[in-house]
C-alpha cells in the first residue's frame, strides 16, 4: 500500500495496484461560498494530477472535499464515488460515471478493492456525510478515511483496520469548541480498531491560509502529544508524518488469521 498526501484532506491511495484519489485538491484557491474574506487557502506550489487515476472518492460535497477547480481539470471519464452531496457536485461538473454511496453500501473497484461508505461528519441537522473503508480483497488489508474526526461505532465490527487517516489534533473556535475533532476522537478509533499506522489529515501542508476564520482557529495538540497518548494507553500504533507530494510505502505487517 502506498500513499501520497496532497495537502489538507487530499490523498492518493494506491492499493491492489489501483490508484484512488480521495478528496482531490491540486489547483486553485480553496474558498467556501466565494467568501474569500472568511477563509482562503492557496497552495504554494500547484501540483499536477497523478497519472492513471482509477477512481475518485469524495467524502463530502463541500469545497474542501469536492473542490470544483480541481475536479474541472480531471478526466471526466474517471469513475467517481461520493456521498450524495458530493456525487451531485461531480455530476454537475460533467463526470460521466458517478455513484452516490449511502452509508453501509459498497462499491467494488475491478473486483480488487471493496469500498464501503460509513457515517462520517454531520453537516446541519439532517445530513451526515461519508467516511470510507477500503479493503484490498486479496490481502484483506484495510484503510479507513474520515476527515473531520467523526467515527461511527459500527467500525468496531471491522477491526482490525490497518491504516487510519483522520485528524489527530483539534482545530477549535473560541466559544464554539472543536470543529475538527482530533485527540480524543483519534484515540477512540485507535482503541476500537487497533491500527498499525495512523496518519493525520486536515493539517495544512504546503498551503497559505488567510481570512477571518483562520485568525480565530486554534490548533490544540501535536503529533508528539498524540504519540505519547497512544503509548500511555498501551497502543503500539505508529503515527506517521507525511511530506506533501511525496509518495511513500505504508509499513504494514500481515495480520494473523484467526481460526475458529
TrEMBL record:
Coiled coil: none annotated. InterPro entries: RibonucZ/Hydroxyglut_hydro (IPR036866). Transmembrane segments: none annotated. Signal peptide: none annotated. This is Beta-lactamase superfamily domain protein. It comes from Lyngbya aestuarii BL J.
